[in-house]
Amino acid sequence: MVLGFILCTLALAYAYPLRTYLAQQAEIDRLAAAQGIQKQRIGALLEQLARWEDDEFVIAQARRRLHYVRPGEVAYVIVDSTDNGPGSSGRSEDTGPWFRQLWSNLQAADNPRQQPGA
Fold first, then answer.
1. CB 84 within 8 A of CB 91
2. In angstroms, rounded to a whole number, what is the distance separating the alpha carbons of residues 43 and 45?
């Protein structure tokens, strides 16, 4: 009986440190995985940075993003009559300055039952 009591006491004495050790090992594993993801992200960013050192890549990005053309080239812009641009709602009328549009949107958000423009 004394031996059983000693064994139970030892088991209880080692339970908390063992649980702490296992929790710390799980945290170390989680941090190591996060560090691996960060290293991959850093590698991808360094690769992207290296691409910007290439003049042809910079020219291609300027053409694609900023619609730049070289001297002597002709730029064409195709406008679809059904689309008024990104994020448009199909309305072509001018509704005023941006701050009035913002204010009307805020008022419409405060009163969702009211129809817009009513």
1. yes
2. 5
82: its two tokens: 């059904």
The reported pTM is 0.46
**DSSP letter string, 18-51:** HHHHHHHHHHHHHHHHHHHHHHHHHHHHHHHHHH
Half-sphere exposure of 47 (CA within 13 A, CB side): 6
Write out pLDDT tens, residues 80-103.
777 555 555 555 555 678 888 888
CA dihedral 45, 47, 49, 52 (to 10 degrees): -140
Residues 37-79 have pLDDT tens digits of 999 999 999 999 999 999 999 999 998 888 888 899 888 877 7
Residue 62: closest CA among 44, 45, 78, 75 = 75
